[in-house]
């Protein structure tokens, strides 16, 4: 009996291993092909999922278990976005953006619900479908904006804020579904107290998480850093991200909102660059898995009539939602060009629709045939988003270019001004030499950022008001998180020749031509670093010798001057 169970367990494990191999093979083939056709990697993942999924060649057996794992990709995506969104930047978003986000959810849900009711379906089903289609895809929108380097633009930040407000609306819609299920699919007055309680519970949870995070997070990470173990630090990062996500899910909010909240709290600490580097590998592979599972929902065996209906409804959703968001954006006084871009980027339905529609079908609130049709439309709208955004952006750019030269110049300056100025010097090490370098740069008005591994030096630097962050500068991922791709130079002030060589190799892997300056202990180390491609080195022996000689000569001159004066 035991041998039989062991054999069965090994068979299950083998199936999972084969599923992973098939997933990797499909993405290795589909993604480069998609990029060669200039369609972007997201569409490549979706195509790969459609091919290997149950409606394609049915090569992957455990779809639901893979989908649970894939959802963590979206969680880590929002966590990394939160790392780049400190609270002070979130405060600058403003009330018009909040008004746009709330009105977009309400108006879109009402518009879609009205259409579904006019088509002859029950009001309860219409409300659930309206809520599902009012949401946009956080994963796809943020991934596309990242690929196009537009997440840091003003319109990218507005899109992110709207997506976060949509995530906050997940709780009320799930409460509404629970009420409809208990009341046999009929809307009653009992829904309002339950919705109010859900909102209060969610608000209370956010406040509690924020207070606990501000009080405990920095001491916890400092304690972990003192252990000098990269594995323990990475495990702590995962604990914070997943733990906060779990808590928010328990109080009726989405996991991705909890992940964003955790990232935002860590963004207020000096550890955010190392955290971002640690989470990046998990985010990348799991997010690609998420897009592939979305592609698995495409039913390639549909009849021609059904395909035409799905295509027609998908186009109607994309165009209709774009027009609605564009109109609301103009109502809240956004520029015509920004309104058009927002309409295009938020036009699709999102991953939350799969959860809400699936639960509504099981509860009997939405007829199964209608629900499955809407799920196909949701998946198709997500798949079409990268191409839709590319075409839409090209159209907006063309229209902008038709304006007068003066307006075009103003527009270019405005768009450039929307990006953060991150042209800084990266200082590695905050010992005595690093502090002198920082002091000189500050004197000349040059911005800088410091990476340091010693918790004591980090605390000392922060006490002085210096931008010192925890991070291993020999890792390319940490350097990228610290903005090495936008920096003007790197200064390695550690004095450890072996560590300096590792940092130089990492910097050269990121930017081959970036100027690198380093302090070294002797001429032999300087020679090795020059061979590694460093821009310039300052040997300590040479610097000390020159200073001693200068001091002696200066003292000799003073003696001669004194003798001349006496005689």
UniProtKB/TrEMBL annotation:
Pfam families: Na_H_Exchanger (PF00999), TrkA_N (PF02254). Residues 422-539 form the RCK N-terminal domain. InterPro entries: Cation/H_exchanger_TM, K/H_exchanger, Na+/solute_symporter_sf, NAD(P)-bd_dom_sf, RCK_N. The chain crosses the membrane at residues 15-33, 42-60, 66-83, 95-117, 123-146, 158-177, 189-217, 229-247, 306-328, 349-368, 374-399. Its main location: membrane. Keywords: Antiport, Ion transport, Membrane, Potassium, Potassium transport, Transmembrane, Transmembrane helix, Transport. It is found in: Membrane. It is a multi-pass membrane protein. PROSITE patterns: RCK_N. One of its GO terms (biological process) is potassium ion transport. GO terms for molecular function: antiporter activity; monoatomic cation transmembrane transporter activity. GO terms for cellular component: plasma membrane. NCBIfam families: 2a37. This is Glutathione-regulated potassium-efflux system protein KefB. It comes from invertebrate metagenome.
